[in-house]
Amino acid sequence: MSDMSLHETTPDTVYEAQMGDYFALLKPRVMSLVVFTALVGLLVAPVPVHPFIGFVAILCIAVGAGASGALNMWWDADIDAAMRRTAKRPIPDGRVQPGEALGLGLALSFFAILLLGLATNAVATGLLAFTIFFYAVIYSMWLKRATPQNIVIGGAAGAFPPMIGWAVATGGVSIESVLMFGLIFMWTPPHFWALALFVKTDYGDAGVPMLTETHGRRVTRNHVLAYCLPLVAVALGLGFTSIGGPVYLAVAVVFNAWFLKGCYDIWRRDEAQAEADKYKVEIKTFKVSLYYLFAHFGALLIEAALRANHIGGL
Amino acid sequence: MAIQVEHEIHTRRRGRNIGVGLLLLGFIAIVFGLTVVKVLQLGDLRSFETFDHVVRPQILPENLPETAPEAAPEGTN
């Protein structure tokens, strides 16, 4: 197609996708959590990393997460179009073509993996590649529409970043990085299902099996408590590893007691009670879950800073 | 229809073009920075310059930086 023919056939009203539209494909809010947890994984590791290599590694992990977000939006464009919350995303809104999202997702995945491989090591690179594959293929394409446990499986993809950060520094996997993975993995279900209880979603209209709709709210309440119990064990267990310490343990005891109390309250009540006070307990527990994750990873950072200054430690 | 010097598509895609340009510049800066860091982490580069047994001025003994002279054995003075 020539330059002239483009000029003649493109009407003035055609929307031209801007950088912001492509950036929105990368799910920037998810990226911010990925950056934070990956950075903690990298900083708490016992092996120092050159600041520039650390910066490039975090950038690659963030771009890899964004790339898998773009691939997810490409695959799930039909679901996004059917739901109010996601109908304004770039593809269903018509601002970006599906093929563009696929191309962007694949290209960014390739660059993120390649650059991380050049900058760091094979373990970190392999974990990033697996995370992108896991989120885009295993979660988005396969299990999201197949099982109401989809949020549990999707949570695994979000749990890998601190493990990758740790691998960037150490070149391996250890009990500390597995427990950081476990912390996010076990935290995701009660966090999300607490939200699902008080937000009226239209996943059912889009054909996505969500626990609240496939098995009902009573079962969802049971699941919130059931996943919270192993979460507490993982969170406290992390405190007894080499990256834990008294500060982390103090924070973990307080926040786990707080979150466990919220999950227990959610489990104890029924739908009539929840509707009577407009889901007050569910909303409060969801907010606590947000502080919970931030507090745990923040405490790990404090412990790392104390160790660097030869203060504290178990 | 005459080809315009400033085609309409240039104006329409200015933001995108600038964005892509900045991303490419950032990519170059990252690769350059990584190269510098990786090379500096190698340590003494002279050890890599002897692999092919070709004499280079910078690795001739007289051009090596001065090191502390070894103590002479007892009774040699």
UniProtKB/TrEMBL annotation, chain A:
Gene Ontology biological process: heme O biosynthetic process
An example molecular function term from Gene Ontology annotations: protoheme IX farnesyltransferase activity
Segments crossing the lipid bilayer: 30-47, 53-75, 96-116, 122-142, 224-241, 247-267, 288-306
EC number: 2.5.1.141
Family annotation (Pfam families): UbiA (PF01040)
Main location (coarse class): membrane
Catalytic activity: heme b + (2E,6E)-farnesyl diphosphate + H2O = Fe(II)-heme o + diphosphate
Localization (cell): Cell membrane
Pathways involved: Porphyrin-containing compound metabolism; heme O biosynthesis; heme O from protoheme: step 1/1
CC per GO annotation: plasma membrane
Superkingdom: Bacteria
Topological relation to the membrane, as annotated: Multi-pass membrane protein
Record bears the keyword Transferase: yes
Described purpose of this protein according to its UniProt entry: Converts heme B (protoheme IX) to heme O by substitution of the vinyl group on carbon 2 of heme B porphyrin ring with a hydroxyethyl farnesyl side group.
Oligomer and partners: Interacts with CtaA.
Family: Belongs to the UbiA prenyltransferase family. Protoheme IX farnesyltransferase subfamily.
Note in the entry: Carbon 2 of the heme B porphyrin ring is defined according to the Fischer nomenclature.
Protein known as: Protoheme IX farnesyltransferase
Origin species: Loktanella atrilutea
Native organism taxonomy: Bacteria, Pseudomonadati, Pseudomonadota, Alphaproteobacteria, Rhodobacterales
Automatic annotation (TrEMBL), chain B:
Transmembrane regions: 20-40
Taxonomy, superkingdom: Bacteria
Keyword annotations of the record: Membrane, Transmembrane, Transmembrane helix
Protein name (record): Cytochrome C oxidase assembly protein
